[in-house]
Fold each of these.
Amino acid sequence: MPETQRLRIRVRAYEYKILDASVRQIMDTALRYDAKIMGPIPLPTQITKYTVNRSAFIYKDAREQFEMRIHKRLIDILNPTPKVIEALTNLTLPSGVNIDVKMM
């Protein structure tokens, strides 16, 4: 059984709407070249919470909480052709989207 190569794309963003639009753009580009795709697979959202005092000195009970959410998606492209890889490298995505690409 031949071993399949896979291009694993991991996309991260703070806003899920921008993330979904970027994933859709990546999927459309890959499907245009007849690539076989697995995904997008939603990964768990990473939530980081910060608690800060509203004021200094004796008002210890007055606190404010902030949170930062990082939304993530995973896309696998099976047996990518050079045309697919070239099309994905020339793709322009909105700012605020982080992409990690690995060849497995």
Amino acid sequence: MSFSSSSWQSAPTQANKLRTSYLKGFLDISGSDAAGLRVRNNNAIELFDSADAPKFQMNATEYSVPDAQNASTVITVPIDKLSYLSGLNTNIQGKFDAISNGDSVSNNLKAKAASVEGNLNVGDNLEVGKNLIVGGEAEFRRNVMIGGNLNVAGNVIIDGNEYVNKSLFVKGDATIDGRLYVLGDVSMSDDLYVKKKLHVVQDSVFDNNLLVSGKLTVTELIIGNYVDDASASGFQINQKITATAGLDLTGTATLRNALNVTGKITGSNAFELTGAATMHSTLRVDGKITGTDALEISGAATLGDSLDLTGAAAMHSTLDVDGKITGAAALELTGAATMHSTLGVDGKITGSADLELTGAATMHSTLGVDGKITGSDELEVAKAATFSDVMSVAKKATFSDKMSVAMDASFGADLQIANKLRVGNDSASVYINGPNYIGSAFANSISVKAGDLDIAPGSANNSVHIRGGLYVDGSVNFLGDFIKTDTKVQVTDQIEVTNSGTGPALKITQTGANPVASFSDSNGIAFLMDDAGKMGIGAVGGSWNVVSNKPTAELDVHGAAKISTTLAVTGATSLSSTLAVTGASTFTGVATFQNGIVLGQTFVDQW
């Protein structure tokens, strides 16, 4: 078959010329001409089944068929694409399915350029003449041999072991996130930086100094000569020693600088200090403590015998003494001191922390306390007493005259007042620290922190009148009606109405001539419902208003209207613009066309 020119003049002059024909049976075209059926002017040939829509359509330039995935969509293909079928002798669809499903290729696969979006499994050799681009995963189940260099622009992640049979040269930095096991010697000509811990299983020998900027943690530290060191070199510490566990000394220890210990120091021999020593925990000494400087204890100190002080002693924490304390000078306590027996003081007692007395205490001179005084018995003061901080009394306190407190006063039980309770000035407030907290940070205000605030009017006709603004940081629950009188409600986030009753969730009643509801955006009114029940939607051509742009029908839409399901109209429908129908149209009555119709691309005005 070949394509040759043809014209209508070659047909017999007596041939029938049909404008519109309908054949109920079949049409048999026979003859000796090259083409039994000719369709001119790029008109299409349509093939139908029992349905009204064609299943196949073809003209001189393209053919159209329904989409197999979506029947409502039509796929149009140029007619020259049919030339691609020339020379095919295999099932191309089967090959495509094998590649799409990730099936293996049994034979060799050769390609100049390959781009794979999913997995690629090749059972035999894979030869690529140029680039190999893998969009998904690439799995190699056998060895990978690389004859040349391997250049990787990104990271290399190896889930299994990596074996290097020869030398390993790293030009830049090497970062090892896990452990590094070296079975042989390690030689480094430069510094060694370890970001985390360095664990050495056997002995470590340093031919030069060992400098530690941070902490040095050891299980056992032997200070003295090394076992095979004949030079009798000692262990010199020029900085402060800090120990979080016990420091056990069986011999004499001489410290000429500060010793800071947070754990326990135990010694069976003399402990001689020529400089300052700070103890943050227990110090237990079976022998004598001799010091040429002050002994400062910031933690607990327990003495099994008498404490004889010939100089000043400063205690910053608890001092527990079972025997006698004798001092020829002042005793200054900056921490808690507990006395289980009589304390007789002829001089001055000064303390910046608690003084707790469980027995009798007699003061023959002034008692000045900057901290807290706690007593389990009565406190009787015959003369003036001045407190610059909190005074806590667990039992009865009797005052024969006026009591003046410069700072806070705390009461552990009820406070009974026979007369009025007065607050000093307008800026002060009543402060109750208990299960129900009432306090104020501003003048003439009440703040409730825990519990309910119950404001009960004197009678049913009275009400609570708030003359200023009301700010509620939480939910508001109205058991009665919510009445709005000449007030605007402004919501900064959103307003949500939830109804679990039997009535409507939102009920609006308009008794005047104004609209029932109006909804606006930043450009103006977008939805308006007037008092007659007419609704206006959209703002095309100007925003809605109640004077010049009111809704003229029960539903007045300024803009496009989209209906996703059936549209039922019982009255006459008037369209002032073009009617476009993408699907089939069915007319059960008479369809009248005043000016003719267009079938395909041909205008028909006579039948």
Amino acid sequence: MSDDLLSLQLRSRRGGFDLDIEAEIPLAGITAVFGPSGSGKTSLLRLIAGLDRPDQGRLAMGEAVWVDRARHVFTPAHQRPVGLVFQDARLFSHLSVAGNLDYAQRRAATGPTRFDPETIIEALDLAPLLPRRPASLSGGEAQRVALARALLTQPRLLLLDEPMAGLDHARKAELLPYLDTTLRQLGIPALYVSHSVEEVVRLSDRVLALSRGQCVAMGPVEDVFARLDIEPLERDFEAGSVLAGHLVDQDERLQLSRIDIGGQILELPMPAALQPGDAVRLRIRARDVAIATLKPQAISIRNVLDGRITSITADENSPYADLTLSIGTSPLKARLTRASVEALQLAPGLAVYALVKSASFDRGPG
């Protein structure tokens, strides 16, 4: 058993729902636990945290075995070095922010202090909030305090159960940079439950995708989100490509960034806080890619990439066909109608032009 893995072989039945998961998760960076509502994401986190007992199986963090049903081993939740952040902040209403953080420090396991309180308070910008009571905090502020409280218990693993589910768009935009920066600065491994593609792409190094209580995919974000058969990607028509690149330069007048993806340039609206040379992660939905066999002229779509079709998958029971293109060394997905594929006589090996109608990007992890 590697010290660098969280090893899961868990079976659990609750209220007619079956969870059956086998996975080995690296204890480094951020792993997204991704899937539609009812896929088992929260159930899995509760088993890892020790809040529920599996019916069968084994759970180990490195050499430490927390669950082994065959040997009647079960480490209770309070003895596992795990920090928890829920959808709601669950702060003590009768204590100030400072009091909530002090309580967490008193509950911390004995041993070396991995996360210094001053460092966490500074990283999460909590100093102005310390004298306030939870009732006076915004949703984003309360979740920042909840994250700090979890970290001050000195965990070896952080579990985040959709911490932004109850926040509006503005509060999510406020909290995301804090999560990203703080977790990477502290170097704590984390499991991040979400059904939001945008959150997963922004925060995660890898994805554990669940559907109906089972693991259907696990791997780097770029690989998992290139698949078109994973719920909720298939259901929500959100499948696409996640490409790694870097910022070349920015046009301040036109507010555009130029991104190098495998030697080809894409122009996108300029975000804040990026500098030339910064690594970025670019997400392009398959439905936002059009295909041309001749290079278009005089069109409003500015991002036209040279590519070659490597595969076409079509289902006679669906109006759509899924294409994979090679853009340099990067795969790019496109979803067209089968009628378009036939009309253009598209086939593997054909050189084409990919017209990227829309894309989003963030600073790459790490």
Amino acid sequence: MQSLRHPVFLTRIDPHRNMARFYALSVEPTLFGDYAVQRRWGRLGTSGRSRSDLFPDLVSAHARKAQLVRSKCKRGYVEG
């Protein structure tokens, strides 16, 4: 697994189910001193959907990012 200080790009591909999904995560500072966990997900080859969750400090933002990575890896996503 990559360091949590870098963006993470996960994929889940299953040709038998016609499944080709991605899930991208990153932690970014906001203009107001908070930190945002940026999430993008969808079918490979599309722009997908996105969501930002705000956190008051970097530690809690990285903790949430790590939790999401663990959750997605349990569901079959892999890096790359």
